[in-house]
């Protein structure tokens, strides 16, 4: 059971105005797997994730979700997508109505719907006190989490998030990642699209790196950090520089904790 | 100069977002405002050009009271604002048309409009894209166009509200360089961000928490304070502070980036 992307090509426009966005992209997302998609703005990340729940159909190649072609209606419920701008995903008068919108359209009502909405708001770490508020009266971070609750209320098997941390403060970012970790433990396959390397490397099982629509890397975070041709987090850059200067430190470290231990160990040894 | 004296703000739903704020922004300074979502950052800066009027207290811009209808036009010309989403600020079809929109609405002479547009576009380095359609631009190029549009109004004070939050790291660096250059050329800058590392370039950092000022000082003082309270600071600074606390590097250095920290740990020969 997985999302399978095989030889995906996609272009906007046609003839001389054709703009090719994705070129032969192939990867998979299993249940409970966390895949990070990295690349600069304009590399095709957003176009790629629109293929994962059938919002776009491949020009060639194919995308399947648990065996269904992505254009099939079954896929809409299996793959939940959180877009970059939450204000474009919120449209009801109250937070409750917004979160309830998906499941009520799938036929849920009464106590079951009430329970589902409370469960979703709890999952994202927000208080149920805001259920009666307008989603547009909330802060940017709260709006994003409400939009996420609206996606989770339909219990997707796979969750796709497009730059979910942009505009989020550290507090809300940490809350978001706690929620994602819980979902992953419950078997939800997660695709996180971001241009913030540090956000992805610490949580993903697998990294996919796109440049101008081409997949130039697929592998573990450790393999990603070992590749000198790919952009690296600033702590990894520091460790590479220290290593080049002759300090005996591991070059693939990107967390402050690991870097501190490596540097203290190396300096202590060097200074005797 | 912008001065807020005892400013509180309560939204119509009764939500108090700012609580007795005193801030004085000096001419030519570079002030960064940090804070969690919902801490009151956007509400605060919307008081600085009269988009919001305080529920209590006084906000003055170069001596003009933002609550005075007679002064509001002059205040809006003095304080230019650039917002988070560049798409929502685009009004023209091309870069040139978009940047010219403000000066054209001031009914200036065409030579003056041409001069302002050319200067503004040069200030953000978009000369080669002057005739490009906005719809063909990247997010970073669109944000530069938005900044140029504000510069064409020749404001003395520039306020940037999370202008890099939708951009990748390359575009972010370019926008920060532009903001720093504008400050060096004499513009007063108030810069709101979630990215703590962007605050390192400021003269002063103000941290808002639940509508009040939690910290106010140099980046060094504020980041030390944040670190001491157990909260996150930029990764290279957290590493520097930990190495300082462990006696591994000098306690007096404040590395601006990872490569400066590398020089402290292992100086080049």
Automatic annotation (TrEMBL), chain B:
<keyword id="KW-0813">Transport</keyword>
<comment type="function">
    <text>Probably part of an ABC transporter complex. Responsible for energy coupling to the transport system.</text>
</comment>
<keyword id="KW-0067">ATP-binding</keyword>
<feature type="domain" description="ABC transporter">
    <location>
        <begin position="2"/>
        <end position="235"/>
    </location>
</feature>
<dbReference type="InterPro" id="IPR015856">
    <property type="entry name" value="ABC_transpr_CbiO/EcfA_su"/>
</dbReference>
<comment type="similarity">
    <text>Belongs to the ABC transporter superfamily.</text>
</comment>
<keyword id="KW-0547">Nucleotide-binding</keyword>
<keyword id="KW-1278">Translocase</keyword>
<dbReference type="InterPro" id="IPR050095">
    <property type="entry name" value="ECF_ABC_transporter_ATP-bd"/>
</dbReference>
<dbReference type="GO" id="GO:0016887">
    <property type="term" value="F:ATP hydrolysis activity"/>
</dbReference>
<protein>
    <submittedName>
        <fullName>ATP-binding cassette domain-containing protein</fullName>
    </submittedName>
</protein>
<dbReference type="GO" id="GO:0005524">
    <property type="term" value="F:ATP binding"/>
</dbReference>
<dbReference type="Pfam" id="PF00005">
    <property type="entry name" value="ABC_tran"/>
</dbReference>
<dbReference type="GO" id="GO:0043190">
    <property type="term" value="C:ATP-binding cassette (ABC) transporter complex"/>
</dbReference>
<dbReference type="InterPro" id="IPR003439">
    <property type="entry name" value="ABC_transporter-like_ATP-bd"/>
</dbReference>
<dbReference type="InterPro" id="IPR027417">
    <property type="entry name" value="P-loop_NTPase"/>
</dbReference>
<keyword id="KW-0472">Membrane</keyword>
<dbReference type="InterPro" id="IPR003593">
    <property type="entry name" value="AAA+_ATPase"/>
</dbReference>
<dbReference type="GO" id="GO:0042626">
    <property type="term" value="F:ATPase-coupled transmembrane transporter activity"/>
</dbReference>
<keyword id="KW-1003">Cell membrane</keyword>
């Amino acid at each position: 059971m997985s999302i399978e992307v095989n030889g995906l090509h996609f272009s906007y426009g046609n003839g001389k105005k054709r703009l090719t966005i994705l070129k032969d992209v192939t990867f998979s997302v299993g249940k409970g797997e966390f895949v990070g998609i990295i690349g600069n703005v304009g590399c095709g990340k957003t176009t790629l994730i629109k293929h994962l729940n059938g919002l776009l159909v491949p020009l060639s190649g194919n995308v399947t979700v648990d065996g269904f072609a992505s254009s099939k209606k079954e896929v809409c419920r299996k793959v939940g997508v959180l877009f970059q701008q939450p204000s474009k995903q919120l449209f009801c008068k109250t937070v409750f109505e917004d979160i309830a919108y998906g499941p009520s359209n799938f036929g849920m009502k009464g106590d079951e719907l009430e329970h589902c909405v409370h469960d979703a708001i709890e999952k994202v770490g927000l208080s149920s006190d805001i259920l009666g508020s307008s989603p547009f009266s909330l802060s940017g971070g709260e709006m994003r989490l409400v939009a996420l609750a609206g996606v989770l209320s339909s219990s997707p098997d796979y969750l796709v998030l497009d730059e979910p941390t942009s505009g989020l403060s550290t507090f809300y970012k940490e809350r978001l990642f706690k929620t994602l970790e819980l979902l992953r433990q419950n078997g939800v396959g997660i695709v996180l699209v971001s241009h913030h390397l540090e956000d992805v490397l610490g949580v993903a099982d697998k990294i996919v790196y796109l440049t101008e629509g081409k997949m130039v890397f697929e592998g573990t975070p450790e393999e990603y950090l070992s590749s000198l041709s790919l952009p690296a987090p600033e702590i990894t850059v520091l460790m590479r520089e220290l290593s080049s200067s002759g300090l005996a430190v591991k070059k693939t470290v990107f967390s402050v904790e690991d870097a501190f231990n490596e540097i203290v160990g190396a300096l202590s040894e060097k200074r005797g | 100069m912008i001065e807020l004296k005892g400013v509180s703000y309560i939204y119509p739903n009764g939500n108090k977002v700012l609580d007795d704020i005193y801030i004085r922004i000096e001419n030519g300074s570079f002030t960064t405002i940090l804070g969690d979502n919902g801490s009151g950052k956007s509400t605060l800066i919307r008081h600085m050009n009269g988009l919001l009027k305080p529920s209590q207290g006084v906000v003055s811009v170069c001596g003009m009271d933002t609550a005075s209808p007679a002064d509001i036009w002059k205040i809006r010309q003095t304080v230019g604002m650039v917002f988070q989403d560049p798409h929502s600020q685009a009004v023209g079809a091309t870069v040139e048309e978009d940047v010219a929109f403000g000066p054209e609405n001031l009914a200036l002479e065409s030579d003056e409009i041409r001069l302002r547009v050319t200067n503004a576009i040069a200030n953000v380095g978009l000369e080669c894209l002057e005739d490009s359609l906005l719809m063909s631009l990247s997010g970073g190029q669109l944000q530069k166009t938005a900044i140029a549009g504000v510069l064409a109004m020749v404001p003395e004070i520039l306020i940037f509200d999370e202008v890099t939050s939708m951009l990748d790291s390359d575009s972010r660096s370019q926008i920060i360089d532009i903001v720093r250059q504008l400050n060096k050329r004499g513009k007063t800058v108030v810069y709101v961000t979630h990215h703590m590392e962007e605050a390192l370039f400021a003269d002063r950092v103000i941290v808002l928490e639940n509508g009040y000022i939690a910290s106010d000082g140099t980046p060094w003082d504020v980041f030390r304070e944040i670190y001491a309270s157990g909260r996150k600071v930029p990764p290279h600074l957290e590493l520097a502070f930990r190495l300082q606390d462990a006696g591994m590097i000098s306690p007096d250095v404040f590395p601006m980036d990872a490569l400066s920290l590398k020089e402290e740990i292992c100086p080049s020969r």
